[in-house]
Amino acid sequence: MNNIKGLVFCGYPCVGKSSIGGTSIQMPDGGWTPVVDMETSLMRTEDYERPENWVQIYVNYVETLINQGINVFTSTHGAVREELKKRGIEYVNVMPSLNIKDYWLCKLRDRWKKDPSQKNLLAYERAMDYYDVDIKGLQEERYVEINVERPYDLNEVICNYIRYNQKTWSFD
């Protein structure tokens, strides 16, 4: 395995990747390191197509950043996770729990209505059709899940996972 300093978190749509990008999270040694949100929609052309090798290009960027000690939030696309595995890059999935499906679908719908981009529409449609299957698949790997139906601090969720291996975030 590479001498990787940064961490990789694969974030489910609407988990807060964009809101945490550009901030820092506290590492186990107490130091703070930056976080980058690797937006997969940037891998699309103007006609919303992707090059054939987009996954390799995307993961090349991820690998470059983590080798510089930068934490990276990526998508939960299966192809991205498979490429990370292939390269021996460990990652943690960050996603909502199964029991807040209706709440999460509303979050995705509201995001799409607020910003009617193709990216947000596709994320909402995917979740409408595959939420249960996708979440169960992510749970088969290393993960931390969000189990709250109200605003939360993703930075706090991630820091508690890193420091205490807290795998479920709730206010219960």
Poorly predicted ranges (pLDDT <50, ≥5 residues)?
Answer: none
Helix and strand content put the structural class at alpha/beta
Q: What's the overall average pLDDT, rounded?
A: 88
Range of helix content: 40-55%
Total count of helical runs of at least 4 residues: 6
As for the number of domains, it is 1
Rounded to an integer in angstroms, the radius of gyration calculated over CA atoms is 16 Å
Number of E-type strands: 7
Walkthrough of the structure:
It is a single chain. The protein is of the alpha/beta class and 172 residues long. The chain has one domain (8-98, 133-169). It has six helices and seven strands, in the order E-H-E-E-H-E-H-E-H-H-E-H-E. The protein has a seven-stranded mixed β-sheet with strand order 2-3-4-1-5-6-7, sandwiched between helices. Helix 2 crosses helix 3 and helix 4 (101-114) packs antiparallel against helix 5. The chain is globular, with a radius of gyration of 16 Å. The protein starts with 7 loop residues before the first strand and ends with a strand. 31% of the residues are buried. The mean pLDDT is 88.
